[in-house]
Design a protein that fits this description.
Layout (H helix, E strand, L loop, with lengths): L9 H12 L4 E7 L10 H5 L4 E7 L6 H13 L3 E5 L7 H21 L7 E7 L5 H9 L18 E3 L4 E9 L7 H10 L9 H14 L3 H8 L7 H12 L10 H13 L11 H9 L1
Parallel strand pairs: 1-2, 1-4, 2-3, 4-6
Antiparallel strand pairs: 5-6
Helix pairs in contact: 6-7, 7-8, 7-9, 7-10, 9-10
Bound molecules: guanosine-5'-triphosphate (GTP) and magnesium ion.
The site of magnesium ion (MG) has 4 residues, from helix 5.
Length: 289
């Protein structure tokens, strides 16, 4: 499958990111809890080598609870600050603010030793498209100042926002495109909506999605949701959904695009249940190679 989706403005964004890094002392890296490997650009590790970092496993409300724990442990064991977060739920705000304050502790101590008692901590949000950066900034600001939307790449502009405590947040999130070595990563990004649907052949991707659900042992989530038989193959699942829903073209061919849209809308909204596509075992294996 050929995915051609690298936008021309990415170099400009990386340059801007590199400039903005100089202005902050803590970096809040947002990743998607359903795909912690594919939604993390390894370039960030190089770019932010010298900065304190907080990993936000965002959209954890859509991810498998057991896997969330494993991922949280995975980062803790690496000695990183980490928090599971749902940007769409304002009740969780305190948890994030505490995590930022906790991650800033060492910096505050260092300032204190130098007699700088009220110096503000400067923070910046970074992440690949669609992980929820704008939604998270909005939730921190408690007001709708940053645009949000389900399409990757809609954020532009720049200013500081004062948060509770002594923390200033850069209004502009740093965006980097995801990097992946194999089709698996690209597909996981497609399933979650991090790669724009219009550059994909959605019918093919939906077949891969069904195969992935079978591989994860979660195909029941699909069959139960649509009240269909499992059949023998991944294609049977798509056919059975079409049959059940009456998704046919005027010439009576199966409307696989409509099936794909239904599947992805439901998966991305969590209507197939809480599903995590990547486990820390995969990350460990990737590191060994
Ligand atoms: N369920 C759930 N949905 C979320 C969460 N955070 C963000 N979303 C949704 O994910 C979609 C993308 O969120 P954005 O905040 O626009 O993502 P972004 O990282 O700013 O994306 P770009 O601006 O394209 O880089 C939106 O539909 C949000 O409502 C979360 O924690 N849980
Ligand atoms: Mg945004």
């Amino acid at each position: 499958m050929n995915i051609n989706w690298y936008p021309g403005h990415m170099k400009k964004t990386k340059d801007l990111l590199q400039e903005n890094i100089k202005l902050v002392n803590i970096v809040i890296e947002v990743i998607d809890a359903r795909i912690p490997i594919s939604s993390k650009n390894p370039d960030f590790d190089k770019l932010f080598r010298d900065k304190k970092r907080l990993i936000v496993l965002n959209k954890y409300d859509l991810a498998d609870p057991n896997m969330n724990k494993l991922w949280e442990d995975y980062y803790r064991k690496k000695g990183w600050s980490v928090v599971l977060y749902n940007s769409t739920n304002n009740k969780e705000l305190k948890k994030l603010e505490e995590a930022i304050a906790d991650a800033s502790k060492e910096i505050v101590e260092r300032y204190k030793k130098r007699g700088l008692l009220n110096k503000t901590i400067k923070a910046m949000i970074v992440g690949i498209p669609n992980v929820g950066k704008s939604t998270l900034i909005n939730s921190l600001c408690k007001r709708k100042s940053a645009k949000t939307g389900n399409m990757p790449g809609i954020t532009k502009g720049k200013q500081w926002i004062h948060l509770s405590g002594n923390i200033d947040l850069l209004d502009t999130p740093g965006i980097l495109w995801p990097k992946f070595d194999d089709e698996k990563g690209a597909l996981n990004l497609s399933f979650t909506g991090a790669i724009k649907d219009d550059v994909l052949i959605l019918e093919e991707v939906s077949l891969k999605f069904v195969e992935k659900m079978i591989e994860l042992g979660r195909i029941n989530s699909v069959t139960e949701k649509y009240g269909i038989e499992r059949g023998d193959t991944a294609l049977d699942i798509l056919d059975n959904i079409a049959e059940k829903k009456g998704f046919f073209l005027p010439n009576k061919d199966t409307d696989y695009l409509r099936v794909a849209n239904l599947l992805f809308n439901d998966f991305r909204a969590g209507k197939l249940g809480r599903i995590t596509l990547e486990s820390p075992d995969n990350a460990n294996n990737a590191n060994k190679n």
